[in-house]
Amino acid sequence: MKRALSLLFAILMICSSLLTGCGKSSDADTAADTQTSADSAVPEESPKLEGCTIEHEPEFGGAYIRCTIDDFNALGFEYGDSVTVTFSNGYVMEDLPYYNGYYTSVGEPLLIAYHGYPYIKAAINNGDDLFEVAGLKDDDTATITLFGRGKYLPVQDARNISYVDIREKYDSDEEFANFRSVRAGEIEENVLFRSASPCDNQHNRATYVDDLIEAAGVEFILDLADYDDTIAHYLEDEDFSCDYFLTLYNTMKVLPIGLNMNFPSQAFREKLAGGLAIMAENDGPYLVHCTEGKDRTGFVCMLLEALCGASYDEIVEDYMITYDNYYGISKTSQSDRYDVIVESVLSPMIQCVAGDGADITTCDLSVGAREYLISGGMTDEQIDLLISRLTGK
Questions:
Q1: SS3 for 50?
Q2: What phi and psi, each to the nearest 5 degrees, are found at residue 181?
Q3: Which of 180, 179, 125 is nearest to 348 (CA)?
Q4: CA pair distance 143, 159, nearest whole angstrom
Q5: What fold, for 48-158?
Q6: φ, ψ of residue 137 in degrees (nearest 5)
Q7: CA–CA separation, 226 vs 2, rounded Å?
Q8: Given CA atoms 142, 145, 148, 149 in this order, what sign does their dihedral have?
Q9: Tell me: the pLDDT tens digits for 243-296?
Q10: Contact 338, 331 (CB under 8 A)
Q11: First vs last Cα of the chain: how many Å apart?
Q12: Residues 164, 170: contact at Cβ < 8 Å?
């Protein structure tokens, strides 16, 4: 009996010890959890880029801030963040969205890390040149601080699309080169073509475009992206092999007009109207291109389609082929993104031509297109000649 009581007492002592140990272990875990929670509540050190040199980017207008995209992101900045950019001359841009594409509305500023850019850039989307607006000089510097983490992330996620520069990833040379005949409205087949650049090979597409325009019998090129000096730079590249383009260029059949994307501006209208007037003096078929054949080319082709009687739906259909070629975005594959792009990218272009207050889905866009070109300096006779060249009428 004593032996049994002694054994029972020992068992109770062991259980008590175990229970006490469990209690201590639980208290320690709770303390550790509390410490972890406290640590996570402490805000991380805000990323900052301080006193970085800048340079003017005149093609689209803006200030390159001489920090590569990878280096800037390595500091802790993320796409969709809100940032403040302070220039050394005192000009401040607060609550600026940081995107990897031109996702702001027309005339709104942003900090952008665009595919192919050497540095991040502060700019006004499709607007005036920020470098001039801010009164900047090349010896100024920029400091960038975080204003709000992820404030613009929903827009970044909705608009974030990219493409690859590898031919094998595409179904055809035409798709890779974003090359096609424009047929909207009364434009005659195989008279007007659009594509990526046949001379600037930064996206590995120029030689493919060159072969395609030769096969199509293109006789005149309206180059929206370049000037003669930039073309001369391409020609000096030891790997340049766009022989058909070179033949046209050497016979004065390439007209570089160096447009940015500020399509509402008077300077844009005048440059474009002057270029189209000269194009109409030459025999087709014609090629209109920029670098990717997407934005500047998209606007100019929209304008020409509208001028030749295209409907809103026809313009949308042609414009969005580019997004199918590059990104696989179509009405059936990604309808939400398709609609966002039409609404936020294409519709402001059409509205600029149609005029404020016009219903772009139902109005006669040919009237607005003619007025747009007249405001740029074209005469009715020059416009009529252009129409007859494109329609064969």
A1: strand
A2: -80, 135
A3: 125
A4: 27
A5: Elongation Factor Tu (Ef-tu); domain 3 (2.40.30)
A6: -130, 160
A7: 105
A8: positive
A9: 999 999 999 999 999 998 899 999 999 999 999 999 999 999 999 999 999 999
A10: yes
A11: 121
A12: no
Instruction: State the Cα–Cα distance between residues 200 and 240, nearest whole angstrom.
Output: 9
Residue 357 to residue 309: CA distance in whole angstroms: 20
DSSP notation for 336-356: HHHHHHIIIIIHHHHHHHH-T
Alpha carbon 247 to chain centroid, angstroms: 31
The CATH class, in words, for 171-391 is: alpha beta
Q: Where are the domains of the chain?
A: 48-158, 171-391
The pair of structure tokens assigned to 207 is 């030689």
SS3 content of the chain, % helix, strand, coil (to 5): 45, 15, 40
Chain-centre distance for alpha carbon 221: 23
Predicted TM-score (pTM) of this structure: 0.78
Q: Say how many residues make up the chain.
A: 393
What is the per-residue pLDDT across 175-223, written as a single tens digit (0 to 9) for each?
Answer: 999 999 999 999 999 999 999 999 999 999 999 999 999 999 999 999 9
- The residue with tokens 């033949």 is 247
User: 53 near 141, Cβ under 8 Å?
Assistant: yes
Q: Which residues of the chain have pLDDT under 70?
A: 1-44
Judge whether 192 and 293 are in contact, CB under 8 Å.
no
48: β partners:
145
119: three-class secondary structure by DSSP: coil
Name the helix (H) or strand (E) containing 207. Answer: helix 206-216
The answer to whether residues 132 and 117 touch, using CB atoms and an 8 Å cutoff, is no
Structure tokens at 112: 């952008």
DSSP code of 43?
Answer: P
Burial of 50 from C-beta contacts in 10 A (0-12 / 13-18 / 19+)? exposed
Cβ pair 96, 82 in contact under 8 A: yes
Contact between 248 and 218 under an 8 Å Cβ cutoff? The reply is yes
